[in-house]
Amino acid sequence: MQINKQLRLAIFVIATASLIVVTLLSFGMYYHFSSQDLEANTKNSLNRSASIIEEKINDIDILTEKVQFFSKSSYDLMTDLRKYSDEGAYTPENLFYSSEEIEGIFRTVIYRMDYINFMAIILPNGEIISYSNTQKDFSYGYDPLASDWYQETLEAKGNLNISVAEEDQAIINAGADPTLFFSRTIYDFYSKELLGTLVVNCEPKFFDFISQNFPDKVVGFQLKETKNNTVLYTAASDKLITDTSKLETTINLNRQPILLAVTIDNSEYAELFQTLLRNLFIILALLVIAIYLTSTRFSNLFTTPIVRLSTLMRKKQTTNYHFQANEYENRTDEIGILYQEYRNMLETLDAFLIDKLNSEQSLLKSELNVYKNQIDSHFLYNTLESINSLAEIEEIEEISVMTLSLSNMFRYASNGFINEATVAEELQNVEDFLHIQEIRYQHSIDYRNDITSEAVLAATVPKIILQPLVENAIYHGMNKGGFNGKIRVSAAIVEEDLYLYVSDNGIGMSEDTLYKLRAELHQASTLVREKTAHIGLINIEARIKNFSGSDYGITIFSHKEHGTTIVIHLPIQEAVN
């Protein structure tokens, strides 16, 4: 993938991801706080509805309290009811008189309360004294003592009891609808005897007051008596609501717990959230498009010069390296620096190629001269071979050995253009050289080759690196063979490297001489073209570094009057057949 596409993609992904995260967090926070607000409003609506219902139940409760403790100068309800606690203690006249008084009380307390059908007092023996504000009343012959709602009232022990009666025959003109009873027992203050049961009968629509003006967001109600799980009232708004939730609370806890469940209209909030989400996605899409366009523009601004530079660098240059001027080269930022440095590199490379071409031409000419010299050297080899043949005929051994050794050395040194040899071939060249030196100095040289490892003998090294070191040991270490010194050649392989050692016990070198020689070896690649002294060591050092790299080369150890050791460090390489 190109760098401009990578940068554009990276900017787009990072910016878009950040935008989405921020948007989702913002919407999440808004949704959280809106949900809290919705929940708070719903609870407020529920609490308002519960307060209204409890207030209405309290009105009925107060009404029954007024009736229960009704008293005037000529009549007291509780005193009158005491006579009915004993079956034979009252007469029909007493019952008629009590009915007149009680009906008068009922007429007074329910005046203009059209939501009450009738009120009644049920005596302990089942006799009913009632007053109707409508056409509905207890049916003749109805026995309330056997009814469930009556038993529940007795269990309430004087507290207001709310119940629904499903019995059609209980109420005159009741029809098929259930009827609603608010009832409580009346007890004697002193004897605690049951004096009667006070009943207020209403239609279930008694609770319509809570649905006539629905509180905010409330679209439905249900009242349920928790003990018997009886539904007292149900109402719902006629609006078509698609998104609702329910919330419940228990009211009338101090008397008879009633569960109030309200249905909440969430459609407004749902529509608000849908609109918000829709607008949010539109804005998000527009921002994503803007981010894409911006990232494209931004990435092109920085990567187009780099892409063009890479295109220039990929072009195949053959002979002429030149740089075409463009507008990016004059920039002052890093891109301008890249173009300027690339121009400098091409100019430098062009100059280098010109020098290299000249050098190759010179090298070709030198190789032709070497080849010519090689042809001339065959005449020398043939001449030496002829001298050797004559020496053997005349049985002059020294001349034969010297000419044969010299011929081998010439042949080894001028073997075509091959610049590498094995360690074994190098050692053989040293042997040929020593044969000549022993005849020259007319005494044997104490030389010993300690290399026996097949791996070392087969290793490839630059040609003619051991013979010059042995020659230096004879000429400098032994003062041109003036005394009987020792020369030792050895080797070692450490990890992947080859170490060759040439040691003598000659006169050695002073510290100043050794320091200067080491400094010259450090500059061998330069001095090899201009130095005349120590040319053998410098030449070997330069060839080793060209052959193997700057990590390899010669190390010299020497002490005055204690000899010299030269270490050749090379990578281990086997000869290729």
TrEMBL record:
It holds the Pfam family HATPase_c. Its main location: membrane. Keywords: ATP-binding, Cell membrane, Kinase, Membrane, Nucleotide-binding, Phosphoprotein, Transferase, Transmembrane, Transmembrane helix, Two-component regulatory system. The keyword Transferase applies. One of its GO terms (molecular function) is phosphorelay sensor kinase activity. GO terms for cellular component: plasma membrane. The chain crosses the membrane at residues 7-33. It is a multi-pass membrane protein. Residues 465-574 form the Histidine kinase domain. It is found in: Cell membrane. PROSITE patterns: HIS_KIN. The keyword ATP-binding applies. This is Histidine kinase domain-containing protein. It comes from Trichococcus shcherbakoviae subsp. psychrophilus.
